[in-house]
Amino acid sequence: MRPTTRSITVSMALVLAAAAAQAGGSVQVSFVQPEKFSDVRDAQLSSVSNLRELKRHLEELGARHVADAQSLTIEVLDVDLAGEIRFSRGWHENVRVLRDSADWPRIKLRVTLESADQPVQRVEQTVSDMAYLQRINRYRDGELLRHEKHMLDAWFEAQFAGAAAR
Predict the structure, then answer these.
(1) Which run of H or E residues covers position 86?
(2) Model confidence over 68-114: pLDDT tens digits?
(3) Phi-psi region of 118 (alpha: psi -120 to 50; beta: other; left: phi over 0)
(4) Looking at the chain, which runs of residues are DSSP E strands?
């Protein structure tokens, strides 16, 4: 088999495996003591919209990467959003400022993947992206949690690339 034919065959197998996983198993996302998270507030100093958006995104990612017979539980243990909130004085709103220093996004997760034909798989890991301002981001400017979503997308791809095909 020629290399190009082999790569096409492998690509097709991956596409078919991913398509089979689209139906998805169950995905549950929870936050463990969110009131103690490092930095999850928005410019209005509320964490509600950010937690809701983070949960929605994790559920979508999980559904995309979990096969029918699998169950994925994601516990978010800590969140430290990209940038930091600068408090304003006067009538102006607070602003989240992104700088190229030690304010990169970090999210600590405990992930459990269960399947009838596989042993339970657990991982606890802090997902971070120190170069978040240098990467091309498919999420548009102004989108809620765009750097965190991009970081989680890459982490899910790395962790679950072969999981749906198992």
Answers:
(1) strand 84-86
(2) 889 999 999 999 887 776 656 665 665 555 566 667 888 999 999 99
(3) beta
(4) 26-31, 70-80, 84-86, 95-97, 106-115, 118-128
**What tokens appear for 9 in the block?**
């065959």
Residue 87's pLDDT is: 58
Assess contact for 124 and 77: CB atoms under 8 A: yes
Map out the domains of the chain as residue ranges: 3-160
Alpha carbon distance 50, 62 (integer Å): 18
Q: How far apart are CA 95 and CA 83, in angstroms?
A: 10
Instruction: Find tokens 């958006």 and name the residue.
Output: 53
SS3 category, 1: coil
Spatial distance between the Cα atoms of 52 and 145, rounded to a whole number of angstroms: 11
- How does pLDDT run across 117-145, given as a tens digit for each residue? 888 889 999 988 876 666 777 877 777 78
